[in-house]
Amino acid sequence: MSSQGPTCQAVNLSDGQPCTSVATTWENLFCRFHGKQCHGLYIGYKRRNAKLDALSNNPPSYLRDATVPLANETFQDVHDEKILREIHDHLYQEYVLLGKVIDARKLHHKHFYPVQMDYGHQAYLDTLSSRRHVVLRALEKLETRTAQVLYEKEKWYKWIREVQQDEEATREKESKKVKLEAAMFKRHWKKMQVRLRAQREKEEKQRQDAYLEAAYQERISMDIESEDDEMWDPIEDVVDDERSRYVDLIKHFLWMEVLADVDENKESVPNSAVSSHLTTDVENLGISDDKQPKKSKKKSKSKAAKTSSSKSKPQDATDQRTGQDRIMEMMDDEGQMPSDKLPEPDKSNIETEAEMRKRLKEGVEKNYDNVQGPILVGSLENPHGSHLRTAPLADEEIDSLAKDIKEIKLLLFCRLLLSHASLLPAAIRSSSIEEFLNDSDIAESDLRDLCLEVEQPSLQDIRDACADLIRGDEPEVETDDEDEFEDESIKDVLMQDFRYGHLQDTDWFVDRILAHREPPVDGEEERPTESEEAPGENAKKQRQQTKMKIQVCGKSIWNYSSENSMSRDGWLQFSVIAKDCNLEHAVQLCRNWDEFSQLNHLTGWQYFPASNWVSWNSDRFTRQLHELGFFPYFRDFEAQRFSRRFQVGGRNKGRRQHSIVESRNIIVGYMRRNDSVTRRFLQYCTMRSCELLLLVRDGKTGKVITAPSKEHLWTIRHKEGLGRASKNEWSTVLEVGPAYFDMVDILRQWHLGFEDYYEVWLWDFVPCNDSTLLYNIIATELRRAWRITKPIDMYKHNESFLRGLTRDRETMRVRSIRPGEQVESLWDDVNDPTNIFLTTDLANKKVVQTSGDGNANTLPHAFYNEADIAEDLVLFADELTSPNRKVPFKEVTNAVTRMETTPATVLNIIAGSFPRDNPRSDDDERKIETLWSLPQIWEDTIAMINHRHISSERKRLLRRVGLLSESSNVIPGGINSFRAAESKLKEADKTMVMERDRANSFIEAFHDADLEPGAPEKYAKTREILSGILGSQQVGESTDWVWFIVDILDWLGVRTDYDTYTHDTQAPWPHPFITQDIVKAYTSMAMFFPNLEQCKPVRNFFQSEEGAKYKDSLLFKPGERAQTLPDCRKKTSFRYRPKEFWNEWEGFLEKTIKEDKFYADIYPMDWSVAIRPIIAKLYLAGVIAPANLQNTSVVVPGFATANTEPHRPDKLDLFFDFKDRDGAIQWPSSIPGFVSPDKFPVFLPLARDFAAKHSDGNPRFAVLRLWSAPHFYPAMIGHWNRRGTAFLDPTARAWEWKFIPKDMPFSEWSMYNTLRTRFELLKDQLAVGDRVIHRSDVVFVMATDEVELLKYVTAVTFAIQTKPWHREFDLWKSFINVDLEFLEGLNPFWLD
Description:
Elements: H1 32-57, H2 61-64, H3 81-112, H4 119-151, H5 157-169, H6 174-187, H7 193-206, H8 209-221, H9 235-253, H10 268-284, H11 297-312, H12 323-332, H13 353-362, H14 395-417, H15 424-429, H16 433-437, H17 444-455, H18 459-471, H19 490-500, H20 506-517, H21 537-545, E1 549-552, E2 555-558, H22 568-577, H23 583-587, H24 593-604, H25 620-627, E3 631-636, H26 639-642, E4 644-648, E5 657-663, E6 666-672, H27 676-686, E7 692-698, E8 704-706, E9 714-722, E10 731-735, H28 738-747, E11 757-764, H29 771-785, H30 799-802, E12 805-807, E13 814-816, H31 826-830, E14 837-841, E15 846-850, H32 866-875, H33 878-881, H34 895-901, H35 904-912, H36 936-946, H37 952-960, H38 978-987, H39 990-1008, H40 1015-1030, H41 1040-1052, H42 1074-1086, H43 1096-1103, H44 1118-1122, H45 1143-1155, H46 1165-1181, E16 1184-1186, E17 1198-1205, E18 1208-1217, H47 1243-1253, E19 1260-1265, E20 1272-1276, E21 1287-1288, E22 1294-1297, E23 1299-1301, H48 1307-1320, H49 1323-1326, E24 1332-1335, E25 1338-1343, H50 1346-1361, E26 1375-1378, H51 1380-1384
Parallel strand pairs: 17-21
Antiparallel strand pairs: 1-2, 3-6, 4-5, 5-9, 6-11, 7-8, 7-11, 9-10, 12-13, 14-15, 16-22, 17-18, 19-25, 19-26, 20-23, 21-22, 24-25
């Protein structure tokens, strides 16, 4: 070659390869052919430049007179279609010329001067490119304006503009589009070989020397301006080829015209060259050579080698970190947040129809790369023969799929056209896609952009196209599945923030507070503003108002994406088209939970021929959780691996040192929102706080519904240092909270595309536990929530779903049953009597084999049983009356939990300042009931006294008890206005307010937990009577009863004007509520003294219309009441019950030891059925609560058991064994002042002696029994002491008492001591031991006549019922104002 002369430096236009011919022209730069080609190209772009200049100098009048640059022109002031067309013709011609000029100059430089740098040439090209971009954007705006002028009256125009504006807002930059274009051609270069081969043949034909020589001579002799110059200008061929290859690719993508593959063996060299050429384009496009940083070849090679090495080697330890280990690493690397987001699938590998048919016919290998856990092969869902490859499809099913997919591709193309303003007019006037692609008015750049979108449509676009095929030309029927608007009061908002404000986004609280700050307009119903509506709600309303469609390329396209659930056929089509995506991608496209759930079940039964979808739930653990409605997206089961305990030293071994790390397993997942199954599961989990902890976030509102206390939010903690580890404090390393939420959100790989879910966070209570225990608890509670009574019930909730599917016996392919087809369904397969079900007990490490219908008798507590039914009747009583499954999960709230959040008085005052909740808030003097309000009966009588003359002696009496001040002669009334109460609250002792509100809450809880039949109704009637008396208006002239009360206060030495509050828990006063308490005590007792003048107001009430209905109540007939004993268990505590009472229970415990069984696994079912509903009622009332104590007898001292008593031989009741065999609690060996029950006073002998001593009078007696429930006393247990009364129930759940259980050791003495302590303060006044005697919770009062008895019982009642205000006498079990004969006729039960 060198002997022949220099080689041509040009590069062939056809294949991009250097020319190998001898250079003979242009100073030996080019061969003859390329010399002519170069000259023709040069002359051509010079001529086009001249045309471009001439065009720019003669613009339309509108552009010539425009005052704004073309880049900012919107053409909004043009209303004439003719002018718009004129401007369009000019701009379009300019756009085409600019494109040809740019392409020609690039072509000229690239192919004829590839090794020379011309910076001026590049700068000029950049200027032209910028100008072309401005013209293109101006054309788009002009098309938009033209469409507005032409189609403004069309209904669809508005939503088309919205689509286009969205596209414009997210449009890629031009430089990036160029790179994407090059990458696209690189991916599809094989398909383009036919076109490249045709180009080479054309070029070879022109290479013929004779033809070239003749043409060259002729060319030289002709004028340079001759029209024949264009025959040597290759730019036209290049432009035509550029446009055609876009069209060809679009048709190829849409299966309209498949590009033929070339033989790789025959075309290996050219293919390699083209591939190299395209690779170079990808690397160099978008940045000129002079702007590229210079890098040595050595460095580049090293980097490439490093990259290659990194791909071949396994990931290092840092990259393999997962779960909480990864979170801690992220927290340590501040500012460097690695993202584990799910990568987008490769959508560029577009199949031809033949390739798709082959894949579906033969099946593909399943991808198990992301499966974590054991895979069960041979089950109904994953039978033998189908676990390695996807099952092949039948020919008719493949034909149907191919036909549908072709149509889906066309619909997808039409929907993509809507976002292109410059293409829409052509698309509207075209009757088919073929006609549209042949439209010469469509710019090459628009085809390029469209080609890029068609090659790689988003998964959302594919899903919408699949849905478009299904819905056809008929509009969707909107289904209103939205929940009713949850109107939260300001009290709810404040309590929510008090409880969980530290776990929630602050925006939640601020938004709701601002909403309550604005009062509703009078006469108008308050509605949420647009900003307050749920995301997508406004769009849904607009869609409901206007549903329309537009004809695009002959296809009807609706103005909204389908919001309905896509059918299984639609998802099948989606899985075939988007074959490389994972199910994690697909679930994010689901519109609601039903669609998501169906997609999950279909995947589990291998309905989809997609190899990547099997990893979604192939491992058995995840599969079972999915079947039961729990979908985990984050988990860390490495607690045992991460935890460590290191301690050294001790006595004579050097100084002690320790380093301890404790970790908890955690799992986070989705569950269906407002669903009865979800509600049951979450409720069960909250009751099992001894084993797992629960936090629930509402996906729609962002509200935290329930969460453990702050001290239990940690998941990793450590302590280290010198000395004993027990004396060192734990340091929290990681805890569940906002920061944890954010980290998990970064690490998670998928989200749901809707908000109808709960985020459920579950983690171990006990650290360092085996993860299988946590999984076992979750699975067991889920089965209970679904009410699965036997193994086959696992499939029952999917019965309708399984009845619509069948499995081919030969191919094992699961498909839909066609209408009218008679085949066995999957439901028939499930119910095959030969099926064997294996139930695994992970806790006890055993497997139980049963038939489908057979109950797992050896694992009765692993399935829903009779005891679960009995408990659910209490926990979910509303399910008995309403079949509605759409019920939200709400934390169990009762009077006690509300009190523990914030005092009710404080809450009411704060809520009162919000106009939305109190429309008349401007009326500061409106009357309300407050802590400082006085009974109406007192207010009215005091008003009468104030209007009368008060003697000096009585004034001194009133001043002694604090009802009159030294400077006033008027007895003050109560505080009944909002503004006064608000002011009083600011000055009041906060502990006093808390204790007062706490007492009201306790009383409510006590009576909710009173399980004695009829007792709550009796108490309610008593409250009605007392409220009626206290609220009655006094119109008479009798005031004796007030002076009677004043005398009692003076006798007791108590004042009513205390302005201080004692924090001594034993002291009954001082406090500012003396008047309310003494009036209430008087009213309670006066009902039983109807003949006394001092009780006239009470007697008047019973003679009134309101009180007459209570006059004949059994409450006032003590003889009849005494005939019926309470239908409840006795109050005897654990220690004082006869030994034989516990024989059966002791035998059961011995059996557990002998058989080496955990007690909960063999707990007698009849016991469990009897006592679990009782425990549930106590829990709902708030007197017991789930305990954060490990459920072992080493930690928890008590057990719940069932037994009968002699007076109720047929009724099992709840009792507690506090024997504490494993020493969980050390009870004191001796108690100061302890008195055993057998040493308590006996009333009847004392009454006889007193009656004999006062035989000349009319001795009267009263037996006052302190109110108590069958299972507990109204005495609170401090939270620091609650572990002593904790107990395990039949399912090994740990509970703690908030009040003293009657089975607690020494409970009788506890109540005896409580009364004794109070009476000691009034020992002299009440003549304790003489007139007032008590045993346990019963007080016996003796007096010489009725007046004296009324005085004593009023004083005793006042002393007991005042501070702390939660103790009261049970009037239905008390006998007041009776004689000795009555006492002697009483059953001994009433005097015990």
